[in-house]
Give the backbone structure.
Amino acid sequence: MPNSKDNLELGQFIPLHYHFNMLNDTNRLRGFAAAIERVVGTGSQVLELGGGTGVLSFLAAQRGAHVRCVERNPELVHAARTTLSLNDAASQVEVIQADAEHYLPPEPVDVVICEMLHTGLLREKQLPVIDGFKRRYLDRFGGPLPVFVPEACIQAIEPVAQDFEFQGYVAPVPVFQEPTIEQTRTTALSEPVVFQRFSYADDFSPVCSWNDEVAIERTGHLNAVRMITKHVLAIVLDEQRTIDWYTQHIVLPLPEPIQVCAGDQVAVRFAYHAGAPLNDLVNSLNVRSCSADTAIAAKLPIAA
């Protein structure tokens, strides 16, 4: 079992209980079930990279597919095999203990499921895993590439006024928010601005970045920036819609607030590699009023 610090970090070696808790995320499972139903059929060859408890492989097996479920963590391999057997899916799902960053199936596949996702594409290795897989797959089998689930990703930022007081205790720290719940402690000062969108089947940058201005639409105390990450699990062309799933929003505090008025412009700049720790985003985040000369850089002591 890996024992280095890197291997114990989220996205490198996620604890077993974290995966168990993810089974409670109804929106996640419903979204993936709907996407898998659209792209997986009887006889499909499916590969899941980073299978965790095996639930997404199970959903594909329910569609009549043969599934290879690749998981690095030996505890999760055992849990997946046990639970798949409990659900009478062991004959359709082959659980393989291997590193998803290096694994290549012995034959072409129709669909690749990969949910190695964290807010802002941070910490977990979704982009490098899929990028490496595509290169190895094309070298070995040529085209076309399989269908990816998720198919695409859209990220946006939003200047906000955030209440950082908790039972009288003021703590301006990063706050994670459930997207399906109204956030009464957060006031949006503009509409979300998209800074990144890409399809996994196409070439994409390993860097998440933004360096531009945002128009303020509401007067307020700008003291944080909210990041929104939408995963397009499947594109339903015949119905002109998408099947989406949002990971948790993250609100990043600024060390000093900026008083802004409707019509102001605010410059926002940041850059980090997908899969990097949260501090890489925090330390690169720079927000300033375009009418002020002083830049406000968000550099907070957050454990990576």
